[in-house]
């Protein structure tokens, strides 16, 4: 049977005994806080109908988790003010109490600021892009300020810390030039409003797709009709020539060339073509407000050519729209007896012309 050091166990008992009641209070306070938080969240979801993007929604979202913090603060205050514990533990719990209060306030402020910024972005006429980069930077700055307040309360001078951060920041900036370049390039893209979430873009390097997010380092795009994501460093996008198919308007004009035989009734052709175009738009892309147009362009070798101009509500909707329009137009032309002629070329063999 192993021999235990009972003297050591007695020392541990002497050390842990003053902590037993405070720990029980903290555990009880945490349990009560979690229960209250769940009850309040359920009651809000059932009985409070708030519209997303309003001040009430921002406030309720920011206050989530506050009951847990409040119960912890009450438990710590009870321990510090009413229970006879050694001065060292009193000081320790005072530090923990102040830290919980500051971090709780910091969390509410960070959520509120992010919510207000997102709400302003949604209501702004200029429509800055809503990305994770902005929220990440704001959250880091606010939490850093909260940590500095806590350190100042602990008696730790923050001036040397700020000085060290400045010197260390220079070293980090030199070591992470590419990462910092991507961060500032992402901020430049956001603030210049060159890109927005859901914009369809094409880079001079050949990549194209719909913008899904702009993070602190990368911009992610998804090509039309594909499920694969393309991840591009912000610096590469900032230095590329960008074609944004969603600016200045999200809808775009599609020109589809068509040709009919010379003996066709052009007024009838235009009428039939517009009927088909309107039917396809109503079926495929009902959000389009602009009416289709027909514009005759030239007398070609074997046909009179014209362009059918359709509008698509989004860049990647054009492919299905073209597909359905060409099928429907071909079927309707055959029903109406409108001829789409084959190309004809005259090839001379000696003195005898031969048509193909």
Task: Describe what you observe in this structure.
With 356 residues, this protein is an alpha+beta fold. It is built from ten helices and ten strands. The protein has helices at 6-47, 55-62, 66-82, 87-123, 132-153, 158-175, 177-192, 234-238, 266-284, 318-336, and strands at residues 200-203, 208-214, 218-222, 230-233, 242-244, 252-260, 293-299, 304-312, 346-349, 352-355. The strands form three sheets. A five-stranded antiparallel sheet has the order 4-3-2-1-5. Strands 6-8-7 form a three-stranded antiparallel sheet. A hairpin with a 7-residue loop joins strand 3 and strand 4. Helix 2 (55-62) packs antiparallel against helix 4 and helix 4 packs antiparallel against helix 5 (132-153). The longest helix has 42 residues, at 6-47. The N and C termini lie far apart (108 Å).
Summarize the structure.
With 356 residues, the protein is of the alpha+beta class.
What topology emerges from the helices and strands here?
Elements: H1 6-47, H2 55-62, H3 66-82, H4 87-123, H5 132-153, H6 158-175, H7 177-192, E1 200-203, E2 208-214, E3 218-222, E4 230-233, H8 234-238, E5 242-244, E6 252-260, H9 266-284, E7 293-299, E8 304-312, H10 318-336, E9 346-349, E10 352-355
Antiparallel strand pairs: 1-2, 1-5, 2-3, 3-4, 6-8, 7-8, 9-10
What letter string, H or E per element, gives the SSE order? HHHHHHHEEEEHEEHEEHEE
Q: How many strands, what sense, and barrel or not for the largest sheet?
A: 5 strands, antiparallel
- Give helix % range: 55-70%
Structural class: alpha+beta
Overall shape: elongated
Task: Give me the Rg, rounded.
Answer: 34 Å
* Low-pLDDT windows of residues: none
Count of helical segments?
10
Termini distance? Answer: 108 Å
The count of strands amounts to: 10
Round the mean pLDDT to the nearest integer and report it.
76
Strand order of the largest sheet: 4-3-2-1-5
Beta content: 15-25%
């Amino acid at each position: 049977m192993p021999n235990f050091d009972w003297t050591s166990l007695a020392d541990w008992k002497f050390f842990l005994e003053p902590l037993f009641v405070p720990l029980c209070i903290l555990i009880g306070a945490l349990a009560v806080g979690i229960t209250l938080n769940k009850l309040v969240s359920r009651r809000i979801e059932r009985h409070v109908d708030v519209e997303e993007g309003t001040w009430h929604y921002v406030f309720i979202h920011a206050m989530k988790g506050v009951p847990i913090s409040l119960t912890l603060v009450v438990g710590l205050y009870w321990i510090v003010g009413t229970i006879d514990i050694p001065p060292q533990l009193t000081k320790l719990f005072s530090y923990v109490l102040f830290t919980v209060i500051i971090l709780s306030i910091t969390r509410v402020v960070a959520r509120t600021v992010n919510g207000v910024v997102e709400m302003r972005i949604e209501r702004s006429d200029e429509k800055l892009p809503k990305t994770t980069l902005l929220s990440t930077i704001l959250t880091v700055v606010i939490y850093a300020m909260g940590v500095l307040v806590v350190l100042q309360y602990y008696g730790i001078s923050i001036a040397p810390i700020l000085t060290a951060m400045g010197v260390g920041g220079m070293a980090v900036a030199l070591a992470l030039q590419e990462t910092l370049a991507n961060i500032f390039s992402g901020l430049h893209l956001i603030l210049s409003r060159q890109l927005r979430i859901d914009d369809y873009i094409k880079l001079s390097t050949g990549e194209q797709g719909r913008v899904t997010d702009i993070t602190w380092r990368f911009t992610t795009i998804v090509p039309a009709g594909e499920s694969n994501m393309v991840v591009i460093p912000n610096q590469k996008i900032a230095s590329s020539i960008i074609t944004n198919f969603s600016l200045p308007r999200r809808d775009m004009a599609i020109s589809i060339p068509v040709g009919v035989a010379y003996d066709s009734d052009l007024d009838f052709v235009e009428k039939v073509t517009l009927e088909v175009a309107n039917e396809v738009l109503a079926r495929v892309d009902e959000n389009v407000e602009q009416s289709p147009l027909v514009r005759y362009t030239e007398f070609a070798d074997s046909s009179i050519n014209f362009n059918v101009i359709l509008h698509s509500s989004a860049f990647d909707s054009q492919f299905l729209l073209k597909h359905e329009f060409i099928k429907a137009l071909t079927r309707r032309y055959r029903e109406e007896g409108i001829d789409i002629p084959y190309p004809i070329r005259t090839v001379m063999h000696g003195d005898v012309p031969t048509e193909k």
